[in-house]
């Protein structure tokens, strides 16, 4: 499933980063920060930069947004190396990964509705949702109990039946740990509506694209333990992770499409890049009269601020 190290243009030690936007809207100031950070990190390591359109959640995707995002990136001088991937076209790869997990006894069908999950949590004395998502207690882990299958879930218990703890180190946030069993529970790989879940899709795609370094917003750090768990079960390499500071709106909330963030004003793309660089902690006085010059000076500035361990 991993990228062939002998494939043309990919060396065994090649560093590869990626930007993977969801086309539920156009790029805004916060998503440009993530794009720039991932581009700078790849270039600072002399590596490649991939772009992947994560349109697996098709009901939420805006028609034409993926193509417009690519145009926005190009307007900012951020050009991907190689073909752009679209998750909506990769169902066969996700199905193959799910089959491997099912065959290994790590994934199982779940017949629980959201109401039933809430009732099960209440019976355990857990009455609240986590980030709007109910922690699944493993009700169907040992059988559907006569219910029809709705979704497919991944086991998060340890081999001895206890809790599974995931430890990892982020290049910015430092050592991290999560009790995956208690904090998340058995999570969905394929949804009740038949769509593939983000966690499975991103792990399969990162491996097949040979991604060595994931640079993304801090709001996604909470996803990392689930992805590491999947990588280990599928025998896939774990990339290095760096989660960048969030860009906040005037009310202190994360700047996002859901919060009504306005699309980038790219009448002056250099000004937009400078603002994104400041959000990443780059010097405010980086020289550069045009996009190429500014990006050229931003690469060593990034390398100095966020060196890669072991290099």
Automatic annotation (TrEMBL):
**Domain of life per record:** Bacteria
The UniProt annotation puts motif 'KMSKS' region at 254-258
Cofactor(s) needed by this chain: Zn(2+)
Q: Which residues are listed for Zn(2+) binding in this entry?
A: 110, 112, 136, 140
- Annotated residues that bind ATP are located at 257
Tagged with keyword Lipid metabolism: no
Q: Which family does it belong to?
A: Belongs to the class-I aminoacyl-tRNA synthetase family. GluQ subfamily.
Q: What is this protein called?
A: Glutamyl-Q tRNA(Asp) synthetase
Native organism is Ideonella oryzae
Q: Which gene encodes it?
A: gluQRS
């Amino acid at each position: 499933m991993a990228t062939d190290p002998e494939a043309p243009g990919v060396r065994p030690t090649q560093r590869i980063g990626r930007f993977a936007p969801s086309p539920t809207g156009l790029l805004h100031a916060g998503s440009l920060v993530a794009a720039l950070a991932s581009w700078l990190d790849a270039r600072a390591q002399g590596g490649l930069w991939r772009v992947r359109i994560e349109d697996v959640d098709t009901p939420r995707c805006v028609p034409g947004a993926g193509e417009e995002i690519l145009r926005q990136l190009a307007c900012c001088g951020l050009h991907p190396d190689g073909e752009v991937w679209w998750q909506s076209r990769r169902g066969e790869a996700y199905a193959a990964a799910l089959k491997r997990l099912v065959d290994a006894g790590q994934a199982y069908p779940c017949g629980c509705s959201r109401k039933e999950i809430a009732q099960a949590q209440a019976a355990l004395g857990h009455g609240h949702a986590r980030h709007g998502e109910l922690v699944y207690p493993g009700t169907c882990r040992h059988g559907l109990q006569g219910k029809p299958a709705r979704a497919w879930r991944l086991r998060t218990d340890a081999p001895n039946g206890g809790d599974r703890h995931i430890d990892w180190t982020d290049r910015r946030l430092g050592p991290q740990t999560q009790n995956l069993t208690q904090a998340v529970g058995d999570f969905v790989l394929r949804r009740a509506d038949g769509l593939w879940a983000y966690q499975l899709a991103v792990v399969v795609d990162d491996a097949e694209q040979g991604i060595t370094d994931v640079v993304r917003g801090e709001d996604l750090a909470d996803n990392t333990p689930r992805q590491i768990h999947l990588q280990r079960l599928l025998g896939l390499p774990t990339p290095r992770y760096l989660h960048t500071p969030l860009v906040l709106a005037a009310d202190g909330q994360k700047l996002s499409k859901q919060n009504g963030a306005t699309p980038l004003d790219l009448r002056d793309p250099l000004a937009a890049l400078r603002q994104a660089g400041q959000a990443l902690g780059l010097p405010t006085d980086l020289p550069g009269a045009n996009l190429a010059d500014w990006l050229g000076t931003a690469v060593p500035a990034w390398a100095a601020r966020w060196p890669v361990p072991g290099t």
